[in-house]
Amino acid sequence: MRRVAAGVAVLALTACQTAEVPRVDVFRPDYQGAETRLLEGDLVNFIVTMRGARDGQDVLDYAQCVAAQYALIRGFGFARQVRTQVDNEGGLWRGDAVYTVSSAIPRGLRTIDAEVAVEDCGARGIPTV
Fold first, then answer.
1. pLDDT at site 33
2. What is the mean pLDDT of residues 68-85?
3. In degrees to the nearest 10, what's the CA dihedral of 64, 122, 115, 97?
4. Could you tell me the CATH number of the domain that includes residue 63?
5. What phi and psi values does residue 123 have, to the nearest 5 degrees?
6. Which of the 8 DSSP states describes residue 58?
7. pTM of the predicted model, to two decimals?
8. Domain of residue 72, residue span
9. Angle of CA points 107, 110, 116, to nearest 5°
10. Lowest CB count within 10 Å: 58, 76, 79, 103, which one?
């Protein structure tokens, strides 16, 4: 009889441990648009805004997607990040990014193959315009 009671107790504890806990960390970004400003020559400034970012990396990703699409629209195959500044005020995230665009792969570490990047952005649900 004790063995049966012990077995029932173990099953009861196991059932308690398998209960699902609802996730509260769901990522629901609200991409609110981008402004583009041609600075000089091949330098382009992108201002992106969004809500619901988890951190600054989400804003950087959004800016990169916009820069990649811009490069393709202008007939270039590549972009390179020069700098990006990210700010969060009251839940509104803003990225101020500067990129160079070019037809040949640029020198530097932060180069982007625009066609590959735009495809990746689409797969990740990040708008490019």
1. 96
2. 97
3. -10
4. 3.30.1360
5. -65, -30
6. H
7. 0.79
8. 30-124
9. 100
10. 103
